Amino acid sequence: MARSPIYAIPRVILQEILVKLPTRDIARCRCVSRIWRSAIRDPSFQHLHVMASHVDSGVADVLLVSEKLEPERCIEATVLNVTTGKTMCCITNPTGYRLTNVCNGFLCFASHASNAPVVVCNPITGENQSLPNAPPSLGGGGPRRNLFALGFSPSTKEYKLFRLSYSTTTGSSETILDVCTLGDSQGWRRHPNPCPYRPVCDGSPPVLVDGKLYVVMYRANPHTRPDKRPDRLLQIDVASETHCAYGTPEHPKYENPTNDVRVTAFELCGELCLAINTVQWYNPKLQFWVMASKQPAGSRIEDPLHCQWVPRYTFYLNCKLTDDHMNNNRCSDLPRDVWLDDNKMMCYRMGDTLYKYDTRGYSANPNASFVPWNQLKLELPATDQSLSTQRSWSVCGGYRPTLLSPLTFSPPSEDGDEQFENALLRALRCLKSKQRGRPPSEHSNDLRPAKRIC
Fold this sequence. Notes:
Blueprint: H1 11-18, H2 23-29, H3 34-40, H4 43-51, E1 61-69, E2 75-81, E3 86-93, E4 97-103, E5 106-111, E6 119-122, E7 127-130, E8 144-153, E9 158-167, E10 175-181, E11 188-190, E12 198-199, E13 207-209, E14 212-218, E15 230-237, E16 243-247, E17 260-268, E18 271-279, E19 285-291, E20 309-316, H5 323-327, H6 330-333, E21 336-340, E22 345-350, E23 353-358, E24 371-372, E25 374-377, E26 390-399, H7 416-436
Parallel strand pairs: 20-24
Antiparallel strand pairs: 1-2, 1-26, 2-3, 4-5, 5-6, 6-7, 8-9, 9-10, 10-11, 12-14, 13-14, 14-15, 15-16, 17-18, 18-19, 19-20, 21-22, 22-23, 23-25
Helix pairs in contact: 1-3
C-alpha cells in the first residue's frame, strides 16, 4: 500500500489542527511545505488563530532592536529575539523614524517631528504596512511634536493608533489626543478633552498592559522654564478611548530638588511597573513600584497619594557618578531600558552598563534594607570610526508573537473599480494556489520544502 503524502491531509482538517498550536509553533510549521505555508497564510485561518484564547497567554518575549543610520539615507533596523537568540527581520524606514512602542506582536515606527505615516511591522511574517496619515497637528503654543502609540483592546479585538501632540515651547503644557481605529473607514478623530501634561519622549516608550496604554508625563510651567521631572502617568483605555492621569510614587517634590529623576514604565508579569531612577552623586537609587489592580475613588485628581502603588524592589546601583558626568548632564542622557528575562532576572540598562538581579525566591518587603545589584559590564563591539554610520540600540519587552498581518490594518477602499480589481486578483491567486497544491503523479519526486522565512 502506497504511503499517503503529508499534503494529502485536507486543508480544513489541517487548519483545525494548526489553530490549536501557539504562535511560535505555527511560525515553525510554515517551513514544513508549501501546502502548510499556504494554509497558514490564509487570512481566514489567521483570523481564527488570533481569536483563540491561547494566543496571548504565556510569558512575553524580549526584543533587541538595533538601528543603523547613515546621513541622508534610510534607517535600517534589525529585530532580534533576546529570548531565543535569533534574528527575526530587518526593516528599512525613512530618515527620522524610530521605534515608538511594542503592541502584542507588532512594532510601531514613527517620526516624532512630522506628519509622516506610521509604519507597523510584524516580525514573524516580515510584513509592514503604512497607516493612514494623521491630520496636521493644529493647536496653540508654537511648533508641535508628536508621540505615537499603538494599542490593543482584548474586549473589542481592535487595534488603535493614538497620537499625542504637544507644543515644544514653554507657553503651553496641553497635549492633544487623536485616535484612529485600524482597519475601518472612520479615519482620525480628535478627543474632546486634552491632557494638561506633556509626554516624556526620551527613555520611556508607551507600554500596553491589559488593554490600557500608559505614557509617562510631566508638568510644564507656562511662566518659567519647564520642569521635566516625570511626576504623572497618563492612562488611555483603548476600548473606550478615555484617559486619566495618575501621580507617580515617590513624588519628586519629596526628593532632593537637585537630583535628577528618570521614570521608565514596563510590563512586569502582566502588571504595570515603574522603574524610578533617582540620579544623585553617590549610589543612584532605583525603585520598582507596581500599580495596584484597583484604584480608589478620586484617584484622578492631582495628588499622588490618591494612587495606590505597591513597592516591589529598592536598590542602590553600586556606582559613583563623577562631577564631570553630573555637570555635563551626561548621566541624564544615558539611554535606559528595563525588562524581565526568561530566567526571572530583572535587567536594568543605563547606558553601556547592565544591572541584573535574580528575582526568584525574593520576598517583597517595603521595610527591607537596600539590596545591591550584580553589575555586569556590556562588552560592545568596536565601531569603525572611519565610517559615518551611527548606531543605536534598545531592548523592548512585552512582545507576544501573532500571525495577524499588518496589511489588514489598511482602510477599506471606496473605489468600486479598485474593489473589483482586488477581488479579481484574489480569485486568480486562489486558482493559482489550487493548481500548485494539486498532488503530483505517482512517479513524481517533487517534494521540495519551502524556503525557511522564519
